[in-house]
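2024-03-11 09:14:02 INFO receiving multi-entity request
2024-03-11 09:14:02 INFO entity count = two
2024-03-11 09:14:03 INFO echoing inputs for audit
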Amino acid sequence: MGFASTLLVIVLLLNFFMLGASRVRAVINGSAMQGVVLGLLAVSVHAHLDLEIVLIALVAGLVKGLLIPRMLMKAMRGGAIRREVEPLVGFMPSLLLCAVTTGGALVFSSTLPLAPQHAGSLLVPTSLATVLAGFLLLITRRKAITQVVGYLVLENGIYVMGLMLLEAMPFLVEVGVLLDLFVAIFVMGIIINHINREFSSLDTSRLTALREE
Amino acid sequence: MIAGVLGVVLCVVVLVVSGLVALGLTRKPQVAGAVAASGVVLGALLGLWPTVRVLAGGASSEASASWSLPGGTLAVGLDPLTAFFLLPMLVLGAVAAVYGREYLLLFADTRRLGFPFFGFNLLIASMVMVVLARNAVLFLVAWETMAIAAALLVSFEHDRPEALRAGWVYLVVAHLGAMCLFVLFLLFKASAGSFDFAAFAQTPPVGSAAVAVAVLALVGFGSKAGFVPLHVWLPEAHAAAPSHVSAILSGVLLKVGFYGLLRVFQLLGTRADWWGPALVALGISSALVAIVVALYQRDFKRALAYSSIENVGVIAVGLGVSFWAGSRGHPRVSALALAGALMHVWNHAVMKGGMFLVAGSVLHGTGTRDLEQLGGLSRRMPVTAVAMTVGVLALSALPPLNGFVSEWLLYLSLLRLGADGAGPLPLLLVGMLALVAALAALAFVRLYGVVLLGQPRSDVARHAHESSRWMTVPMLVLAGLCVAMAVFPGFVLAALDGVRAQVGGPALFPADQLSLGRLGAFNLALWAVVLLGGRLFLGLVVRRPVTEDDTWGCGYPEPTARMQYGARSFSELASEQVLPAMLGPRVTRVKPVGLFPGAARFSADDRDPLTRRWYEPAFARVAGWLASLAWVQRGVLTAYLTYVFAAVLAALLWVSLRSGGAP
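2024-03-11 09:21:47 INFO inference complete, emitting structure
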């Protein structure tokens, strides 16, 4: 379990890294690394390896570590954005917020009635903290691309939670979730493209026309 | 032919399947219409046989199958009460479907007709399912399907704002009603432990729960039946819907509300003393308000819709008097009133269904429902005029037509109740019902005169054309049914006997049955006299030489069509001098003054008075309150995500606080 815990700590640190980075490229790279780590995690959490788990680890690593980051990089170059210039909440405050939510997640998960084999592990707090970090990314950033990364991180958190249930969950469900994620990011990529073409900017705070007056 | 409830289930299947096929054939409206209409006719024929058998005294039957929905079983049943409401659905449904095929094809160039054909079949199928259902979940599914199908049909002409609005209002009212029904069935479930009607009947709610059930039924089913003040959806929906749908809405759908009331009362078992007076009060106020407002309507179909509310009120009065007299030990009165109310359900289905088809024919021939643009149609649309004559006489409750028979039973019951020494209240009711009848007669004389008689008030009326046989024959069929039901009331009464027993009403006294038979003979004699006399009169007139000349024009040298009484001027005396101003239209006028008067103007806002005076201000006020919450809608994605984030955090916090921090 030692190796798995190390990986989980890396996941948590990557959350902080993404929230603190101003370069969009760095944020995307952070999410890619998180994806790879999650792939490794799937292998390391389980004592006995079988084909299913290895397959899932491989597919998850590939999709999250390679495929999606590549698409995002491409979108970034297309949109000619390098930095998150003016986040709605500054980098320092968002790091602090992340610290608070991570701490909260640790405290909260200790109150949960978990199954004995998960009781001491970092899986649940990491999962919650990652979901909340994804939320924070979504809320505090202006650029559409960073928000997509936020969505990705949120999904990563759910994936960590799913790792606990890997034995219980059928392979198909897991693959279906990955496919869903991929399609969602794909669609977002297209939308980003359209936003960019329409407004020559990817600043989502300008998209308020649908508000009911 | 399959007898029993399965035959009717097969009818539902045929209806839905033919509707779906029609939906698939959207691109070929001719074929789609033929498939859908023949599906309804075939379904009606399949369903009629078991229905008629049950009404003729055959055994009730039930069937049930399991269903994956929690609490739901596919339990259906066919008993006299179901059959009683099923019969007009099937008959009017088949007639209206044949008519509707031709009617909708008029729109074939501008609209896609697949859905209207499918929606009509779905509407009929869901109504049939509502009366068949013996499980609350199944009932509610059918009930909601009925509401949605009807709402979509109402907004058929969806590019007209008033049609969209009508559909919207209908949906809102239907869902408010459905909400009451959900609570109602949950109350039943609480005491019975199951959603099956059979279990409901064994252990019905008692005490305050029973009172709540009865009140919820009055509101939930009353909104469907159209009791004032829950009627606001009704005139809008009836006016906006295609005419064959209006015929179904008014003829059958409103009665489904009565089915629900009677079913719930039957399931409750013991009768509370207040049901009767409550129904009477609701009924008489609905009838009075609606018939007054009907008098002012400028729209042909809206006027008919208000008259529907009036008739619903009359039915409610009949039921109420029957319950009331029953609980006070006047079985003879109770039997008369119940017979009158039930008979009026059928009568109104036939006569108002026919009248809406007439309105559709007029709309088809002229392109307008505006009474101020019609006129002189009796020469241009002779067959429609015949059907309208019968319908108007029936709706005015005049002999020798069926409307008279049922209202006569009602009067008879009230007079007998008065004579039995039940105080002055029944006699007061007689007076109020007579007032309603007089106003109804006034309203229909107005409709008849403005539409059929006089000179055309516009070019469209001048160039009106008669509808094809596919539309005129259905109208004549319904007119013929009106006559038949007036001449043979005994048959109708015999068919009602099973329902009477199921609702728990006493049997009609032999003397009253005999007098009803005599009334039929009287009607027949009257028809003979009228027809023979008419023939003789025509013979005499035809023999006389005819001279053509201008109508007597009150001394004006050049009379024009605009000088005749219009729809508005006909009801002016009533609206300005006699009837309460609260119900009248809001009038704005600039009178011509002085020796050289300037431009004069007159306009009347004939929207529903309750909508205008109560609902619109109330809803506007609520909207005003809610506007202060508009800041929540930032239109910024981030803001919404923050709401979600906050909600998630709050939920986590709540969970961890509730578990008390203990692992």
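2024-03-11 09:21:48 INFO post-check: DSSP finds 25 helices and four strands in chain B.
2024-03-11 09:21:48 INFO post-check: Chain B touches chain A through 21 residues (CB under 8 Å).
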